[in-house]
Amino acid sequence: MIFKGLLDDARSIRDRDPAARTTLEVFLLYQGFHALILHRQAHWLYKHRCFFLARWLSQLARHLTGIEIHPGATIGRRLFIDHGMGIVIGETAEIGDDCTIYHGVTLGGTGHDSGKRHPTIGNNVLISTGAKVLGPFKVGDNSRIGANAVVLQEVPPNSTVVGMKARVVKINGHRVGPSPSYALDQIHLPDPVSQELCQLQHRVYANEQKLRREEQREREADQ
Length: 223
Hints:
The protein is of the alpha/beta class.
């Protein structure tokens, strides 16, 4: 059963990474997959209250792969960790099925509170390079988090989140294209700040035109 789960993980990485040629290549050469193998063992130890051994295994994985996953974190099926260097996943973080996480991502907390303090990531979520998701809230299914976004509040399903502090941009209230996790598109994301600036420019231009028309009418009245 464990082997089948790992085989599903490896095959999903092969299918989603255009650089991967075979499943065997994923097994032997992909540090994101190696981190998953070690985490699943560490998580088993953690659930059976072998806390020291679990942490030791997670630290070994950190030194070998550059990916730090607390053994208490819950990870679903077919997670694709691409490159992976610098990823940090906290103790109470939960990750759903078919997600993709790029290097430099943090799923962290915002303080020293006990209990649930890390995010819950839904299914089919794409978290782009350098994004920080901080706090005990949920990122809804089929959502995309843009590169270097800092997410501090809940994200509705089927949303795109960009910026610092991150802001949600819905695309017609529906999922766009294929599952975001499988789309692997970190570039074509809406920029809400740019959109608002564009709207402000239109308003300024409209007000300038209105003032010019009023000035023209005043000059004509004076004549």
